[in-house]
From TrEMBL:
Its cofactor is Fe(2+). InterPro entries: JmjC_dom, NO66-like. This is Cupin 4 family protein. It comes from Streptomyces laurentii. Residues 102-236 form the JmjC domain.
Length: 300
């Protein structure tokens, strides 16, 4: 099955009508509900290996201080203050309405990583995953813009989403939207098994509804920006020039400058805008170094 089919009900409609154009609620036939459940989240918390910044608690007005939910441990003779305390997390969620945010789940959860890698192949872009557990009647963040297209899978409970228009030009920043964001383009309650698509840069706010906690797994499809184009172009221009590090005299320095200009001309002459964008997107994607087999299959 095409990985995108786990998130959308009609791939052709998604690509030609929704992508980068408009937010929408999607109803895939087989949403990835089983990938990371609330029950598994409880087990992960109780295992005691979660650390910040992979797991943090946040409120609408900002992050919860780490010392309120992290316990110090002695590890190899030193104090490590990053380990998340499951009891403290549950207490802050239940008593103070804190939201549990798991960052970059694709880096440490095999099932989520498989989904993220599949989406990355579909879009040819970097894909990351985040999990939010939100107590009822609570929002984790105010209205804000994200520098990514978002596919949010409602795993448990429900959330009311309000999605507002995208930025007016390319000079926007991924940050909170202060003041009145205006009328939403989409005001909808996302229910278990549904997926919400939010185009890159569109502002949104989500709040758990219905009297129960909400859990969602969000995949962010990252796009290259001008900084990535600059970085890739710089790498291309610096690659293979073979210039001496410290020319000995004026003639040698001028010769090096001439060689560098010629190298830049050759590089730029064969470079198209489409190829530069492709290279920038590729540079953003993490390399996976997978080795086949299992530890149990190794000789005893």
């Amino acid at each position: 099955m095409d990985p995108l089919a786990r998130f959308v009900d009609d791939e052709q409609v998604f690509h030609h009508t929704l992508w980068r154009r408009t937010p929408a609620v999607l109803h895939p036939r087989t949403p990835p509900m089983e990938t990371l459940t609330v029950a598994e989240l409880d087990g992960i918390l109780d295992a005691g290996l979660l650390t910040t910044p992979y797991a943090t608690l946040v409120r609408e007005d900002g992050p919860v201080p780490e010392e309120r939910y992290c316990s110090p441990r002695v590890v190899q003779g030193g104090i490590d203050n990053r380990h998340v305390d499951a009891g403290a997390v549950r207490r802050l969620i239940g008593e103070e309405g804190a939201v549990l945010l798991l960052r970059y789940v694709d880096q440490w959860h095999a099932g989520v990583r498989e989904l993220a890698d599949g989406l990355a192949e579909c879009f040819q872009r970097q894909v990351e995953a985040f999990f939010l557990f939100t107590p009822p009647g609570t929002r984790g963040r105010p209205a804000h813009r994200v520098d990514a297209d978002v596919l949010a899978v409602q795993i448990h409970g429900s959330e009311r989403w309000r999605v507002y228009p995208g930025p007016l030009d390319g000079n926007w920043r991924p940050e909170r939207v202060d003041g009145d964001p205006g009328d939403p383009l989409l005001d909808v309650v996302l229910r278990q098994g549904e997926v919400l698509y939010v185009p890159r840069g569109f502002a949104y706010v989500a709040e758990a509804t219905g009297g129960s906690a909400s859990a969602r797994l969000s995949f962010t499809v990252r796009e290259a920006g001008s900084a990535h184009l600059y970085a890739v172009l710089e790498a291309l221009l610096l690659d293979g020039d073979g210039l001496p590090a410290r020319p000995n005299d004026d003639a040698a320095l001028s010769g090096a400058a001439s060689d560098l200009i010629a190298h830049c001309h050759r590089t730029l002459a064969g470079l198209t805008p489409e190829e530069l964008v492709r290279l920038a997107r590729g540079a953003m994607r993490r390399e996976r170094h997978a080795v086949g087999g299992t530890l149990s299959a190794l000789p005893a």
